[in-house]
Design brief:
about 55% strand; seven-stranded antiparallel β-sheet; mainly beta
Length: about 100
């Protein structure tokens, strides 16, 4: 049973899209290959500078796989598992 909005992935957005969002002024975060649980207390958008990840929600929503150059938005209240198959570096913004 799906209990909220899906993870949104914009594959390889252009520079104008990223500049409009202000991505390059956001903080950065990274991690090595790993697998860990995460819960989003607020919405998050991120832009992957490197890496590959599959995020699987724990409540039946669709999993999402994304990588370098993708723009992803995670909905508030979603619990999930991050499965990082290639080390990640990303810009991020909670809202």
């Amino acid at each position: 049973m799906v209990s909220g909005p899906e993870i949104e992935v914009v594959s390889q957005p252009d520079q104008a899209f990223l500049e409009k969002k202000g991505v390059f002024n956001w903080g950065t975060w990274g991690c090595d290959v790993s697998k860990f649980p995460w819960t989003y207390d607020s919405n998050e958008s991120c832009y992957l500078l490197a890496g590959k990840v599959t995020v699987t929600p724990s409540d039946g929503r669709q999993p999402a796989t994304f990588g370098k150059g993708d723009f992803v938005t995670f909905p508030a209240g979603m619990s999930c598992t991050w499965d990082v198959s290639e080390a990640v570096q990303k810009h991020f913004n909670f809202f």
